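We now fix the convention by which a protein and its fold are recorded. Think of the row as the fold of the chain written in a discrete alphabet. Here is one such record, which you should read through line by line.
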Amino acid sequence: MSKSGYTLAEVLITLGIIGVVAAITLPALIKNYQMKVYENAFKKEYSTIQNAVNYITTTEELNECFVAYPTGSSSYQIITTDCSKIREELVNNLQLQKVDNNMYQLYAKLNEVLANGGTTKNAAVTYDYGLQTSSKYMQKDGSFIFISGYTIIFDTNGKKGPNKWGYDIFWMNLTKHDSGKILLTDNLASLKEKGGRYPKEILRGETNSKDNTKW
């Protein structure tokens, strides 16, 4: 009785097909995995900061640091009375440590972001100046938090790459809503580099969009 089997040519063809499929699918799988890592890191950092803000605004009664766009209003409302005190309380609550003030140089400027296919929710905001002049801190886990008035910018993995807006660094603001709560949102301003996502997109489980609208 003769035994059937695969010829060498058939085996090589099969391996070749597997190799082509792997070459096509692996980059996408790796990218999806990496984006999930960024997403989880963002959610962790966001939750940490928002919980700290909730604690501070409740226990210390520091509610006068926010930007708002009241219903029916034609202009933004900006209150900064308690901003310095909230920053101090965040430093204490999160046990933040000061870092080199030149850390802002790790990140792309607004013009670079836009020139390379990125978007912003409000191009009128002075992102570059706000980042440069912010007070810069590091958490115990190595993540960075930059605070400037009612603006809070955070880098989920510190000096590690990719150091890109909408991937591992996010621009957010303390905002006041009809409920009276002070929330960390990207309603007023934020920016993301090509392929990245705005904070709200991550929190809502949305893919990246071309959203460049104001609140």
Remarks:
- Residues 53 and 109 are 28 Å apart (CA to CA).
- DSSP finds five helices and ten strands in the chain.
- The longest strand covers residues 169-176.
